[in-house]
Write the structure tokens for this entry.
Amino acid sequence: MEKVKLLYEGKAKRVYSTPEEDKFIIEFKDTATAFDGLKKADISGKGEANCIISSKIFELLTIKGIKNHYIKRLSEREMLVKSVKIFPIEVIIRNRVAGSMAKRLGLDVGKELERPVLEFCYKSDELHDPMINEDHILALNLATEEELKTIKEMSLETNKILIEFFRKCHLELVDMKFEFGKDSQGNIYLADEISPDTCRLWELGTTTSWDKDRFRKDLGGVEEAYREVKERVINTPIDSKARIFIRLKPSILDAQGSVILNALKSLGFNEVIEVRVGKLLELKMDRKVDEPERIERMCRELLANPVMEDYEWEWIE
Amino acid sequence: MNFGIVVFPGTNCDRDCYYVIRDILNQPVKFIWHRENDLKGIDCVVLPGGFSYGDYLRAGAIARFSPIMSSVREFADKGGLVIGICNGFQILTEAGLLPGALGRNRSLRFICRYVNLIIERNDTPFTSEFEKGEIVRMPIAHNEGNYYIDDLSKVEKQVVLRYYGENPNGALDNIAGIVNERGNVFGLMPHPERCSEKILGSEDGLRIFKSIVRSL
């Protein structure tokens, strides 16, 4: 899949169209900005780290049933995604007090919240992404009530999954920012990226930053932080299961199926007109890589005989 | 002519092949355990019938990963003669050394009986002792002999043996045995080693081994 046209260039990413209308390619840049673009620098290796981290996290979310725009990673800094129309809303979810919340409410940084706090901002560079509430969203038609409900549910569920995942990476998920989009059928997908640029991550049990705050606050070790998070994310296994179905190709007579069909008919189940028998395999994996193509290869190279069998597979919880 | 008979866990026609080659044809022959990888000095590799690795997943699917199979592939690439009988045929298709696949018999039953076969080609190193169009008798004994390929035209010229009269297992176009394009790898469902002495009811199988010996 090749890039056709640059559609959008943001602070940290470029988005390209592809020969397929429903797919975009996102390219991750090394550039970082903070404080509304007042501070800007290149962080070597950041684009690669964010692309790899985001890919693995999107994979995990797919396995856990959170619809997201990720299709696959194409290179160290490019990923193929579904083309979705982004809602002009930033969703922020907080587990501990930090950043603007600490400032606004005069709270101690690091205070644990009784429950996750959702905040919404209106995406607008000129207005500096002002905070809005649900009524604004509905009154200004930024999303419908149904869409907002889905966005909130997906945000909370994603937060739960990622708190647990980052804990396995020995990181505390303090807060993070989401963007959502929808496809032409109106399906809602989690979009953008999930990386140290969009998440506040602290060394578990401390307030040591492993995220963009190192850049924002000039804490030093910025490149190392992205690299460290990347390494931890890559090396943290995602327990996953794939279910593989293998059956004879439709062009092949399924003798077992015919016998079973006759048995069903003899019991009076005359509505059945065809039975195809197949094999079901469940693979439990300790995946350290984000490549669904590996399962395709397992199917093609061993599990199914492509001469006479078709296969399908899916992630299972 | 030096024969090497590969033995997988579950192979059970190895001794019969050995007997025919050594005691009837007086040719040098040895067993090659599937963990080995040395085919030095071998002129013809025999993948005998039986089972391999319990035939888990599909018949022949796991055997193809045995160390000896990489050597067999190299051997075949260099033009060495390879004959796969029954499970050996299944292994050759799974390994991609022969086209197509062998699915479950249409009757869903294990079939063990004599069948009639027509010799479609006698220009191979495995069938030179036959006349083209000759009808011969050999026993089959298998559960997965239902030959299938998506496009029959791909192998039309490679068919060496067809079931004659009745099709016992549903094999596409009655295919019972095929060679690769080059003609040095042969797979067949019937068991020639089980019909190589008069006392067993037919000597047609012996002619396959004789053809191989004659080819060199």
Summary: The CA atoms of residues 54 and 193 of chain A lie 6 Å apart. The mean pLDDT of chain A is 93. The radius of gyration of chain A is 23 Å.
